[in-house]
Amino acid sequence: MRILGELGEDVIEIARKITNEGSICDHCLGRQIAKISSGLSNEQRGKILKEVLREKEGELKEGKCWVCNGLFEHLEYWVSKALEKLKDYEFDSFLVGTKVSGLLLENEELLWEIAGASYAEPLKAELNREVGKRIEHETGKIVDFKLPDLVVILNLWTETVELQVKAVFIYGRYRKLKRGISQTRWLCRECRGKGCERCDFTGKMYPESVEELISDSLREEFQGEEMVLHGCGREDIDARMLGSGRPFVVELKEPRRRNVDLRMAEEKVNEEKRGKVEVRDLRYVNREMVAKIKNAKMDKTYRIEVELKTKVLEEEVKNALERLSGALIEQRTPTRVLHRRADLVRKRNVHSARLVSIEEQNAVMEIKCGAGLYIKELISGDEGRTKPSFSEVLGVEAEVKELDVLDVDLDIEVEDVVNREAVR
Question: Are 67 and 123 within 8 A, CB to CB?
Answer without folding.
Answer: yes
